[in-house]
Every structure is written in C-alpha cells, then in structure tokens.
Amino acid sequence: MGFFFLLAVLVTGFYGTFGPVLFSAALSALAWNLFFIPPRFTLAISNPEDIALCAGYFVTALVTGILTNRARELEALATEREVRTLFLYEVVKDILELSKPGEFLQRIALRVEDLTGGKCTIALGEGPAAGGIEFEIKGRHSTFGRLIFSNGDNAPSNDQKILLNSVAQQIGLSLERLSLEEKIREARRLKESEHLHQTLLNSVSHELRTPLTTLMGFASSLKEPTTDTPEFRKALSEGLSEASGRMNRVVGNLLDMSRLNSGTLSLKKEWHDISDLIGVVLNGTKAELGRHRVNVETPALLPLIQMDFQLMEHALSNLVVNAAAYSPPESQISIVAGVRGDRLELTVSDHGPGIPEPSLTKIFEKFYRAPGTPPGGTGLGLSIVKSIVDLHSGKAEVRNLKDGGSAFSISLPLGNPPPNPGEEIHD
Ligand code: ADP
Question: Which of 21, 139, 155, 391 is deepest in the core (most CB within 10 A)?
Fold first, then answer.
C-alpha cells in the first residue's frame, strides 16, 4: 500500500512546491496508519516495528517528493535558460545581419513584444520618461539610451527582467562597437585625406618647378640684347610653349581631379564620332608627340558614341601624352578604334619599356608612378583617365605588348545612337 501512497507524493512533488509535498507525505503516512496499521481506524500503533515502518515511510516519501520537486524545478530552469539563450542569439543575429541601428532596434523591439506580449520601445539618447519599466542601454564607456517595457498593469516577471536586461546590454555593446568602428573609419579617412593633400602638394610643387625654372631662364635671357637672333626666338617660342603646355596640363589635371573627386561634375553627354575625338586630341598634343610616328586605325563605319567630348578628349590626351613621354622619340604610337561586342574600344599603344608586371594593377591609382619612372609627372593622369571612363560606364585597362611597349585601352558602351540626321526614317 505504501507504494501507492508514495506515488501520490511523487505527483505532488512534480506539480507542487515544498509545502504540498510535506503535507501529502504527512497525510499519506497518517492515512496508512489509520487504515492499514493495526489497530486499524485509530492513530495508535501497537507494534514498535510498525512505528519504525511508518516513520521510515514518512521520511522516504518526503525525500522522494522533495527530489522530484527539485528535478522539475531544474528542468524548468534549463528550459527557460534555453529560451533566453535562443532569444539572445536571435537578437545578436539581428544586429549582425541588419548592422544599421535604425533597423535592428526596431526588429528587436518587435521580437521582445512577440515573446512577452508586452509593449517594448527602444529610445536612444536622452528623452522624457515614458511609462513602463526602463533598462539602461549602455556599453562599457557610455550610455546610449533606454529600453522601455510595459505590459499593461502586469509587472514583468523576474525572468523577463533578466532577459530584458540582457537584451539592453547586448544592444549597448553592439552600439558601442558600431560607434567605435565609425570612429576608426573616420580617423582612417582623415589620415588618407591628409596623406592625399600632402602628396598632392609635393607632386604639384615638384611638377610646376621645372616649367617655372624654364620660364624664368628665358625671361632673364631676354634681357640680354645679344640673344635677339632668329634661332633664339625659335628656341624661345618652343621652350615657352612646352613649359606653358606642361603647366597647363598639371593645372588641368588638378582641376579635373578636384571636380571628379567632389562629385559635382555633371556630364554633358552627346553623340560624337570617335574619329573626331582622335583628330582633336592629335591636334592638341602635337607638341608632346614631337618626332613620334603616329599611326591611327579606325574602321570606316564606326557608330557614334555618347560622351562628354571635353572630358573624353582629356582622357585620351593623357594616354597619348603618356605614350609619347614614356617611349623613345622616333618610335611609333598607334591609336586603334574598333567595336568589340557591345563596346567601342580605343587603344593607345607605344614601343616604350611597358609597365613593370607588379605595377599593372596599381597603375590607375592616384599618385601612383611605376618604380624607375623618371621625374616629371604627378601620377594623376591615369587616375583621371579611369575616373572619366568610369563616369561613362566604361572601362580603362592596360596590358603589356609581346614585343615591348604598353597598350592602354578605353572601352565605352555602344548604346543606341540616334538615327543619322541625313537619312530619312522609314517605318
Ligand atoms: P605621370 O605620367 O604624371 O607620372 P600617370 O598617372 O599619367 O602619371 O602615369 C602613372 C605612371 O604610369 C607613370 O609614372 C609611369 O610610370 C606609368 N606609365 C603611364 N603610361 C605609360 C606608358 N605609356 N609606358 C610606360 N609607363 C607608363
């Protein structure tokens, strides 16, 4: 019989707390005594062995009841912890996935509301006190705001408080990490821009010095009456135009770079003939091309290309001037245009030393000059070419030629040129 009574105590242990367990253990011991231990239907026990049996039963029932109760409590605690861990895991996942505070805070508030059935608001910064219980959102060094929770008239349970506190802590740490990351990025940007300015200043002052020295030399020699000969005039005019051309290019590149960098540049895109572009560029770079032989290859029927003519002229001029500057005076420079797939490709190639292999990937970067390049350049020309071509949704590339020299190419999307105005349109 004792075992049946014990079963009842176990059930109480499973569902109840210590009080009911004690009560049921005592009650069952009494009932056993009353109904089964002689003399029956009295609480008296005649046999001392029965007294020991009854007391033993009571202790066993109590201990098993308490143990069952503890086991159940531990299980409930483990489940609760699991729920909490899972919830925090979801919160962290939200933060990592969304990474923008505006988005993940909203998602987390919704999650808390789903879990608890209460109302959750996350307020960043100082704000007026809102109704509900508040949890501070703070990182290691600063406080970011509050998580405000209310559930009608019901106060949150202790477990809910622990959970909400952990959520607030997690948000605080993440916000702190994000703000630190932003600070690091900002510092890096500042450092880069400082470096950029420094490099710019160095290269510009260096690059302007050469033509300025030339100009000053000519100016002082003009004072000498003996220099007024036709030969001197010829040399003077050539020297002046070369020096001023060089200065013009440096200043032009600088202006372009700042316009391109500031993002304020608006393209004046119109449909143009590539052969016109090549013609204008060759005309403008006559002085730089000097004794080079220039070979132009363009198919008779090239489609019109939509571009900002002035910018594109600048880009192509930079390539042609580079080809002239970095290849021997009598060598040949080729400018080849042609359609390739859905793009028009324009290639300027020379017979110079080409680009050292490791520099190929960096050649279009700002201020980059390949090692061993003689002084007299800013390293800006190709970066401007790339920026201009990028603005046209095109691609600027470089490769070395098999028999020496380099080939720089610009490819531009073909688009849908307007019908030739001279042609009649038939439907
Ligand atoms: P800069 O000519 O003022 O140095 P660029 O941006 O125009 O600046 O060119 C960057 C570098 O690329 C040059 O310093 C040179 O090392 C290399 N380079 C450019 N064009 C050529 C070329 N046609 N042949 C060999 N090297 C070139």
Answer: 21
Give the residue, by CA position, lying nearest to ligand 1 atom 16: 370
Confidence of residue 344 (pLDDT cuts 50, 70, 90): very high
What token pair was written down for 355?
């680009």
Ligand 1 centre from 381 Cα, in Å?
Answer: 8
DSSP state of 359: G
Sheet architecture: strand order including 133-138? 119-124, 143-150, 133-138
Q: Give pLDDT, residue 171.
A: 93
Q: How far apart are CA 329 and CA 331, in angstroms?
A: 6
Could you give phi then psi for residue 271, rounded to 5 degrees?
Answer: -85, 125
Write the DSSP assignment of 62-104 as a string of letters.
HHHHHHHHHHHHHHHHHHHHHHHHHHHHHHHHHHHHH-SHHHH
CB 164 within 8 A of CB 147: yes
Burial 374-392 (b: 16+ CB within 10 A, else e): eeebbbbbbbbbbbbbebb
Q: Which amino acid is at 418?
A: P
Question: Residue holding tokens 């220039």?
Answer: 294
207 lines ligand 1 (CB under 6 A): no
Please tell me the distance from the alpha carbon of residue 369 to that of residue 375, in angstroms, as a whole number.
9
Residue nearest to atom 23 of ligand 1 (CA): 323
**What CA–CA distance (Å, rounded) separates 362 from 380?**
12
Q: How many CA atoms lie within 13 A of 407 on its CB side?
A: 15
Percent of the chain as helix, strand, coil, to the nearest 5: 60, 15, 25
Q: Kindly list the distances between the CA atom of residue 23 and the CA atoms of 16, 65, 74, 334, in Å, as whole numbers in the listed order.
A: 11, 10, 22, 105
Give me the residues paired with residue 148 across strands. Answer: 121, 134
Of the candidates 333, 270, 272, 269, the one whose C-alpha atom is nearest the C-alpha of residue 297 is: 333
- pTM of the complete model beyond 0.85: no
Ligand 1: atom nearest CA of 327 is 24
Angle at 138 between CA 134 and CA 143, to 5 degrees: 95
Q: What is the average per-residue pLDDT within 95-102?
A: 86
| 372-378, Cβ contacts within 8 angstroms, sequence gap of 24 or more | 373/326, 375/206, 376/207, 376/210, 376/325, 377/207, 377/325, 378/203, 378/204, 378/207, 378/250, 378/253
Q: Which helix (H) or strand (E) holds 18?
A: helix 18-36
CA 213 → CA 46, 149, 209, 247, 417, distances in Å? Answer: 130, 75, 6, 11, 48
